Each structure stands twice: as structure tokens, then as C-alpha cells.
Amino acid sequence: MKLSRLLKDVDVFHIAGETDGEVLSVCYDSRMCGKGSLFVAVPGLARDGHNYISEAAARGARFIVHEKDFDVPTGVAAIRVGNARRALGILGKNFYGHPSSRLCIIGVMGTNGKTTVAYLLEAILKVAVYRVGVLGTVNYRYRDKVLPAPNTTPESLELQKILREMANDGISHVIAEVSSHAVDLGRVEDCAFDLGIFTNLSRDHLDYHKSMEDYFQAKLRFFKEILPAGGKRRPYKMVINGDDPWGQRILREVAAPFITFGTGVGNDVRAEVISFSLDGIRTEIKSRHGAVSISSPIIGMFNLYNILAAAAAAFALDVPEKDIREGIESFTGVPGRLERVRAGDCPVVFVDYAHTDDALTGVLRSLSDLRKGKIITVFGCGGDRDRGKRPLMGKAATAGSDVTIVTSDNPRGEDPMEIIREIEVGIDAETVRKVLPEELSRETGGKSYAVLPDRKQAIALAVSIAGPADMVLIAGKGHEDYQIVGGMRFPFDDRQAASEALDSRRQSGRRG
Fold this sequence. Notes:
It is built from 16 helices and 25 strands. By secondary structure, the chain is an alpha/beta fold. It has 3 domains: 3-95, MurE/MurF, N-terminal domain (Udp-n-acetylmuramoylalanyl-d-glutamate--2,6- Diaminopimelate Ligase, Chain: A, domain 1); 99-330, UDP-N-acetylmuramoyl-L-alanine:D-glutamate ligase; 339-507, Mur ligase, C-terminal domain (Protein-Tyrosine Phosphatase, Chain A, Alpha-Beta Complex). Helix 4 crosses helix 11 (321-330). The longest helix is centred in the middle third of the chain and has 18 residues, at 212-229.
């Protein structure tokens, strides 16, 4: 592509050097540069792309987009811009031919539920015979392709690249989980969205956003600025959780056509006649279109909200009711989202991604409604992340459980025991007794907790002390198949650890 065409709409301050010739590729990682590349020097959170300009040029980059002064290598054109990260998104859109303009793009935002809503809506749209792609926390996928997901939302250049590949492969609808980081870092600025879904908002990522108001503003900006900037006209633009106070605030502050969902009578799409069990959810969803009776195998009140969000989005996209029903009922669950480890085993063991106090409270409340025995919870908190939520997680876990084992999550660069000590601050010592791990098997009454930093040992202990009517919840990591300790990534999967613990229990002759 000619440089002049590639730079369309980019805010260029100055160009120095020879600009003739074709741009053969665009990159922001110097290791990906080759002959004829255009390298964008993006100042990142951990590394500054300006420090890698020489390496990019040595690998063949002929064009450098930059914000700061640098020594221009011979034969290289330097293009100075005010915001290299913003330029990256525009360059990606131009280089890949604005692929989102040819696709129906649905963005899913919220602290909790994004992944499940994306999976549910994918199932509905497939029943409706649409060709669907998904960009999310678990993976990026379309047709028979499944790609690893380094971020919930791809960096802007990768986003444009994968959307182009989807469009070329005949995909019609793309469901994208949109993180607050993605909005704040400009990853989705140049994507033309058709519809935005808001699930809920609770404390998370405050290591980055610093306050709940800042966190909310990132969500709000998606609906207020990015969604309308796509220029697409649809009868509805927003699907909002009408029961969530932050969702109500979006409705007050954004002038756009919307559909609300929830259990309250004022919602456009609402659930009535609700029944919960370990076998799933039975409900009747009412809307202006009529009533749809649904029997879903996923469990819990929070999943009812996810079902309502997906159904409301499907209504907004004019999907027939029969397809909505069939899609929801065909969906069996998301990996690591209240995923049962080996159905039929006793005790019942679930693995869930809940890593905020609100999500953990919701999961435990749903399990409590279905309990016949004790609830035993294993959880920890990640290192180098929002420290303020640690005591809140400790409070939520012990409040909703009979027995809690506090363990390590992804400690990253922090001392696991220091993270655990901060979790313990939130545990009410008057109502929850601290015991040694070996004492848990002898506990007969009241709430108790123990500390066991080794996560595999903690999971094994939880399974070994559970009675046949008890439930074990392993929270925090969900689908993740690794643990990050001291900057190193080690293989670790909660589901595998739980399965091994169940095997050990069976081999020892204990069935409850």
C-alpha cells in the first residue's frame, strides 16, 4: 500500500526522509518487522517502542511512525505523530481495508459475564444460520479456526487483521468481548460496532483505573463515543442490564436507542417463573415479541442474567424466538465458568473464574440456593494487581462458605504469603475461626478457614474433606492452564488438579 493512502486520517506532524515505495506490512513489535515494513513506535505500559527503532530498521523497516525524537537511520522515513497508539489503530484499519464496515460487530462490556454472554449469543446466531466469529478471554475463533487469546480484546492492529481474515472467510457476525483496558488504550477506536451489551459493573482492575468512577468512565466511553462513531444505523444500539445501577446510569447519560434486560418488571426483556437446580435453569423470558420458555443446563442467578443479555441482544438483531430458545438450550457452558469437574462424582466440584468479590459472592449465592451439605471454597488473589480487592475477596469467600482454604493464585512478582495476609484482613475473626489445614477434617460446626499456599495441595485437601452432599468451589483461575510465579509461567489447571484429587479420593476408598 502507498504510504499516502495508509496515512489517511492519521494526525501527522512532520515527515522526514524518502517516502516513495510500497508499505509491505505494518508492525509495532520490532521482531515482526521485515523488508518494507512500517514500524509504529508505541510507548507501552512496560516497554517503549522508541527503544526498538534501530532493531526495526535493521530488520528492514523503511518507515517509522514515532512521537519522540530519534536518530533517523539512513534510508528510513520518519513520520512524527502526536499519538502513536492512536495512529496504530488508524493504520491498521487502512492497511486491512476497514473490515468491520463489512461485518455485524457486537461488543460485550462488563465486569462479569462477558465470556458467557459471548458464548450464548454465538450459539443463538449459529442456530439462526449466521457465520459467527468470537474474540474473547478464552480464545479467538471462527469457523474451524481457534487462536490463543493473549488479551481479552486484541491490540488494534491484530484486531483489524483478524477482522479482515474473518470477513474474507465469509463471517457475517463477530462478537467481541471489550475490556475497559481495550477502550482506554484505543484498541477498539477504529472498529465500527453495530451493538453494545452491558452486563454489570463491580470492583476490578483498580490497579489500572485507580477508582470505580474511572473504571466506569471507560465503559461509558464505549457507549457514548465509540459505538456511535461506527456510523451504522440500527433500530437498537445498546443492550443494558436495567437492574444494575451503573447500567441505569448509562441509560441516563447516553442518548441512543436501547433494550434493557433483567428480572425487574420495567425491563424490556425479563425473566419470569424462574426455577434453579443443579440440572440448570428453567424460566420464561418475556418481551414485546411474546414469551419464550427456556430450559438451560447452566446454573445460577448470574447465569440467568447472562441468558437474558444474550436473548435481548438476539431480539435486537431480529433473531426469531425459536432460534433464541434452541441456541440457549444447546449451550452447555463455558470452560472454567462454574464448570463441573466430572459429572456424577461426589462431592460435586466446580471450577470458576470468579476473581472479584462481586463475582465470588454471586457464584456462592447461587450454590447456596442449591446446597444439601457444606460449601468448601478454595481461592486466592493475583499478584501485581488491585490490592484493595483482596480483603473484599476474603470477606466474600468466608461469608458464603462453610469452609474456606486461602491459597495462591497467580502471585506473579509478589510474595504469596503477603497476598494471603492481605486477604485475611477481610475475614471476620469473630464469626470465622482460623485453623491449621490438618484440622479442617475434624471441624464439625461453625465457619472455619485455613491457609495452604500450595494451590494443588489446597485443592486436594478440599476434595478430601468434603462429604458426599458437599460442594467444592475452586475459584479465581477458571479456564487458565498456567500459574505465574515470580515472572515464570508454569503449567497448572484447576480442573486437572481437581480431577486428580477425585481419583485419589476414590482410590483411597472414600466415597463420602
